[in-house]
Each structure stands twice: as C-alpha cells, then as structure tokens.
Design brief:
elongated, 6 helices, five-stranded antiparallel sheet, single chain
C-alpha cells in the first residue's frame, strides 16, 4: 500500500509526494523541495522489514532509479512481483543498519550504496532479482544496476551483478534439465512407435500375400 507524504515547495505551498510500500521512495523532487523526516518508529519498522527480507534472501540486486516516474516504478513492482521478487525503496543508511543485524551481512562491504537506490530481493532464486532489474532497464534507462549481494553476504559490483543477470533463472534451469531428461525417453518412444508400425505393416503385407 502506498504512503503519502507532504513536502513544502516554493512559496510554502504544500506538495504531495508519493512513496511506495512503507518506504520513502519518490522521483527526484525539483530543486527547492524537501521531504519531511520519518519518525523513529517508522525507521525501526523499515529496518525490521529489510532485516526480515534479507534473512530469507537468495539474492539482492541494487539499482539507481533517479528520474524514473511513479508509473514506471509501479510497473517495475508488478513485473517483479510476478517473478517472485520484492522491490524496496529504503534509505541506504537504514539498509546498512539492517545488514548489521545479520551475521551473514554484518561484515559485507556496502560502500556501493550511495545515492538514490532501490533494492530487488528474491527469496527463491539467486539470479532473479538481478534479472528483473536488468530486463526492466532495457526499456527504462533511468534504472541501472549498480551492485548486488549474494545470499551468503558477498558484495557484487556492477560487472558481477550484470553478469549474474545474464544467467538462466532457477526455473529455466529446471526446465532445461527436465527437457534433457525427457529427450531420450521421447526418442525411445518414437523409435518403438516406428518399429511397431513397421511390424504391423509387415503383418498386413504378409496377410495380403497369402
């Protein structure tokens, strides 16, 4: 569910800025605007949510999104959700706090977390988070992969996470393995079917000759 946060613009006129989920996530405001600070309780809630997601993450991908429209971010969320990936827009400082709460991530290098970033987290697939962002970026150049983290807490640079995005997903690998396993069975079935037809044709020919 979206939150709505009030900001003040030029001439002290109120401006509505939309965020996503329970996170502060917006397109870059015009110069002269500022966001109201979130409460301590909300910060703790954000950290707790990220901490929970990280505890189950098989893979996390990070991308810049400055200049991306609200509609495009909503579209990204829909595509990610269909792939079993969660998109979060959270302040980098709060993400670092969440990292520090996990033995897996507490010593992870987070120096790449700078600027406006969004986080894609997959609880089921090591490559899907990176793949979702990489595919979306092909038609939305304001979204760019910059970093990632493995489920074991290893920091990935831009080249690493981009290469990861090019790998087959777990579902694709399973489908390929199943296809390979079924291929000999399919070939054997076709051969047996062909031999049976030949046998039946031979019987019919013998009958006709008699």
């Amino acid at each position: 569910m979206s939150d709505v946060n009030n900001a003040v613009g030029y001439n002290n006129k109120p401006v509505i800025l939309h965020s996503f989920s329970v996170c502060i996530g917006i397109t870059t405001p015009k110069k002269g605007f500022y966001l109201m600070a979130i409460s301590k309780d909300k910060k703790q809630a954000l950290v707790a949510e990220m901490s929970e997601l990280l505890a189950e993450a098989k893979g996390t991908a990070v991308a810049t999104y400055q200049g991306t429209s609200v509609a495009d971010l909503q579209a990204l969320r829909r595509e990610a959700r269909e792939a079993g990936v969660v998109i979060k827009v959270v302040k980098n400082r709060l993400v670092r706090v969440a990292f520090a709460q996990h033995d897996t991530y507490k010593n992870t290098d987070t120096s790449a977390l700078a600027g406006q970033l969004l986080y894609a987290i997959s609880p089921d697939d090591e490559v899907m988070a990176a793949k979702v962002l990489h595919e979306f970026a092909k038609t939305h150049p304001t979204v760019q992969l910059v970093a990632g983290f493995s489920g074991e807490g290893e920091a990935l640079n831009t080249a690493d996470v981009t290469a990861l995005a090019g790998l087959p997903s777990k579902n694709q690998l399973v489908a390929e393995v199943v296809a390979q396993l079924l291929s000999p069975v399919h070939d054997t079935t076709n051969a047996l079917s062909g031999n049976l037809h030949a046998l039946l044709d031979g019987i019919e020919d013998a009958k006709a000759a008699a």
